[in-house]
UniProtKB/TrEMBL annotation:
Organism (species): Hymenobacter caeli
The organism's place on the tree of life at top rank: Bacteria
Name of one Pfam family that matches: NAD_binding_10
Lineage, top ranks: Bacteria, Pseudomonadati, Bacteroidota, Cytophagia, Cytophagales
Alphabetical list of InterPro entries matching this protein: Ergot_Alk_Oxidoreductase (IPR051604), NAD(P)-bd_dom (IPR016040), NAD(P)-bd_dom_sf (IPR036291)
Domain NAD(P)-binding: 7-122
Protein name, per record: Uncharacterized protein YbjT (DUF2867 family)
Amino acid sequence: MKIILTGSLGNIGQPLATALVQQGHAVTVISSQPARQAAIEALGALAAIGSVEDADFLAATFAGAEALYLMVPPNFAVADSRAYHRRVGGSYVRAIGQAGVRRVVQLSSWGAHLAAGTGGILGSHDVEEILAAVPGLALTHLRPTSFYTNMFSFIGMIKAVGTVGVNYPGSTRVAFVHPLDIAAAAAAELTTPAAPGRHVRYVASDERTADEVAQVLGAAIGQPNLPWVALTDAQMQHNLTSHGLPAARAAEIVAIYASTRTGALGADYEQHKPPLGQVKLEDFAREFAAAF
């Protein structure tokens, strides 16, 4: 199959591209960075260098593809992340229309079923709706849960104050996912025919309480009594902005965790739970310890 991947060689893109190439597929990886071309080609894939906001570039790259993996690359330079998501989503739709591709797997997020109250996930909701409006598309929304890799942001807090936590309590049970499990799910979807219409696939690796997260991470770094401390929304906002994050972006993160606290974020996931993936919290804890 000819498969096009957006997102360059990130935490998901690299294992996804590697798996598809090893399966014998003709893979093209889109990146905005010319410096990534050599690494992409070293995997056995083709590199297409350009912007996902350039619909004409995308259409030319998509031509002849049998499946597309679409994500919105992070862009912390934009003032309005939701508007940025909409722009990229619109660019994807125009390119899909020009190229005539019928199979799309979109990297979305749990909580994307909601149109309000989830902060930084609202952009994923918007892109889902934009793509779903394309007639005749066989579209899968891949909705991973909370990324283990977000926990790397705890390292500074642990070193500074000896605690870990965000604005939900330690008793909160959260579904976590590793990029490798997301890549495996994406590879399966991209290489499996789907009927026209809208499909949703959740991806999760483990389900643990926040207190268990602190216990497992603490044990991995030699701090077995590491406590989880529930912050207020105001404390969380202050911590993020005091470390240089723009207020609007900080508010998006606060809203994500607040919706985790209320249960709104994971409500649809709870109704459509997938089989859990391979990478458990204890496995990720070894990566965390290495980074610590």
